[in-house]
């Protein structure tokens, strides 16, 4: 899934006057598994040259179940489902553009 996201959401020739995606990856932090993007910025007004942003959080609840949340434009995580299986979570991500990278 990550390789497919990279093909679709990492631009070959980005407009470098804006932030643009350079990588999509996953990581564990404590009991949560995150889908993340790395952005670069070459603007002279940029605070940093790059930054990371998570867009999906799967919080492990035991025996192949997770609480599924996505990061909203409000700056907060929004819980979508509780005790969701890994397969169902991946299906939800693939079927709904709201759960996919920017």
Kindly describe this structure.
By secondary structure, the chain is of the alpha+beta class. The protein has one domain. It is 18% helix and 47% strand. It has helices spanning 2-9, 86-95; strands at residues 20-29, 32-40, 50-62, 65-71, 77-85. Strands 1-2-3-4-5 form a 5-stranded antiparallel beta sheet. The longest helix has 10 residues, at 86-95. The radius of gyration is 15 Å and the shape is elongated.
Summarize the structure.
Helices cover 18% and strands 47% of the residues. It is α+β, with helices and mostly antiparallel strands. It has one domain (21-99).
Please report the distance between the alpha carbons of the first and last residues.
Answer: 15 Å
- Strand arrangement across the biggest beta sheet: 1-2-3-4-5
Q: Please, how many helices?
A: 2
Strand content: over 45%
Q: Bin the helical content.
A: 10-25%
- Which stretches are low in confidence, meaning pLDDT under 50 for 5 or more residues running? none
Q: Give a quick account of the main beta sheet: strands, pairing sense, barrel closure.
A: 5 strands, antiparallel
- Outline: elongated
Structure classification:
alpha+beta
Order of helices and strands: HEEEEEH
* Strand count: 5
State the domain count.
1
Give the radius of gyration. Answer: 15 Å
Average pLDDT value?
A: 92
């Amino acid at each position: 899934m990550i390789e497919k996201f990279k093909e679709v959401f990492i631009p070959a020739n980005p407009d470098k006057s804006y932030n643009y995606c350079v990588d999509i990856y996953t990581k564990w932090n404590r009991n949560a598994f995150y889908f993340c993007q790395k952005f670069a910025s070459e603007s002279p007004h940029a605070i940093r040259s790059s930054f990371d942003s998570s867009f999906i959080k799967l919080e492990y609840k035991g025996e192949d179940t997770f609480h599924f949340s996505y990061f909203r434009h409000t700056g907060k995580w929004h819980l979508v489902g509780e005790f969701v299986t890994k397969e169902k979570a991946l299906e939800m991500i693939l079927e709904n553009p709201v759960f996919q990278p920017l």
